[in-house]
């Protein structure tokens, strides 16, 4: 099995933080004016980067949100009052913190990063509102002081007040206690789209939208307050609140709408009685738009525009949570077949366009349903359907999807067609959580892909229980090798009809606990699921190389001069194609005078299909003097042709195929044809060997058919390395 290209290592923390701070500084200063020297600004942002990285590394679930709010508020304190600076900051942090997840997916890091960036936007909005409130307080104090000083120097006070009032960037309205505008500044006129003179005498609450606003996606801070502004005036006048700050929508004179932050407080007369309302209005439409855009980017796939995994998972949880217990939902996980062929042959641009097309066609396939289509990542999509009485059966639903995807897409003059494998689950909403439903769909998808291309499979709980148990054992296997529970044992190889043990076959044995021992076939099946078989080859070969001299002496006592291989190792399909196989064999035989004492049997199917370096491995092993063989042999025409052209010494029949011919249940036709095949193998100068004969009668039939040797089964259980000296005296049953 060829190793994948290594993923580039993450930069050291110090370099990463400094690079991120410099990128942040450059982006912020290029988009907005910030009243700071570059060195000073970079020092400040370096501190904020440290806080962000520390929060993401903290196990606490609340730390990212709290740190995000603190960082957002700090930006306003340091002069980032232009929304362009916030947008640049979010883009830099998003690229820096999430940029590597395409290659090294980490859903927990993604979730914590999204939470931190969302809280940072909200903290920035809060900081900007506090900044506005501070301006309001200062302006209010200036207004109040101007009224007090007016008794001494009315003209000077009026000039000073008018300068502050007219030059403020915040819209200001002085209204009576009913909300009628008495005076307003130019900034408010710009927000409302009219001159201050046109506002005089008008009721300010009339400009504000009073209906309940719809929820707004994204991170736009507090939801707008519904109802009339006059109600807020009443609350302030009645003393329920000293001052109020709300986010509202207003409608301009031209009919356009804008998002604003409204601050309301009272001005008192000389006797301390309420006299006027001071209403300050700041336009935050651009900040709101930026926040909504950020929210959309965090919840949607940038390539297809479909919901991403985070939004889809949230939708799935919400759907299951609000559905009636007996309501059913359907989840389909769709994985494109052969998508890598498109990227490799036509380029990634064509692949990207095809992904967009697939997303559109999946939406078209379920357009009549209450459904959501999402791109989970790569070439994997998901479809969630809230089942209705008219929702078709799963097989009909999959057929609709396949029909939509079957139509070729013409890109740059080429008709590009691609199929998909699908895992589908339909269950009652109360039966599974979102995580369990996703896992069930993934399990069904793996089952479909194991069947072949363009297949689909459903989910069956009893099959899943067994699969989960096997998966758990598979991921436990590497640790078993490390702690010595998984070891190499040696199985006797016996000459049929002579009861002589002439060689040993290394096999895996897993002593999982005092009562449980897993045999070689089960261990290999588990190891193949995780790729551990390839990793084990050098270790097993190293063990074999150390034992060869001992075995030669032991077998010399019973067999005399030893010419045939004493150790016969049989490889799996993945091991046969491993690019490092020949190197591992050569290293294991370093110092061994007679490499032919080791026989390496390659998987027949892997050699025929030229998996990885399978054919090269066969040639190289012959060149370095190692005996070779073929295992898993089925006797088909291509296999016979391969046998004729290969310098192999032995052939081991597939125990699950023609190797069943020796059993009592085998038919006469099978026995006759297999006996003819065995004779052809032996007549061609190869040793024919069989695995695991279970009864003396079965062994006798194989001997009569011409098979030379047998391994395992009734000829003895595997023994530990320390028991190898006694191996030739293992009883034959």
TrEMBL record:
Residues 157-212 form the PAS domain. Residues 327-461 form the GGDEF domain. Gene3D superfamilies: 3.30.70.270, EAL domain, PAS domain. Coiled coil: none annotated. It holds the Pfam family EAL. Residues 243-296 form the PAC domain. Residues 470-732 form the EAL domain. InterPro entries: Biofilm_reg_signaling, EAL_dom, EAL_sf, GGDEF_dom, Nucleotide_cyclase, PAC, PAS, PAS-assoc_C. Signal peptide: none annotated. NCBIfam families: GGDEF, sensory_box. This is Diguanylate cyclase. It comes from Actinophytocola gossypii.
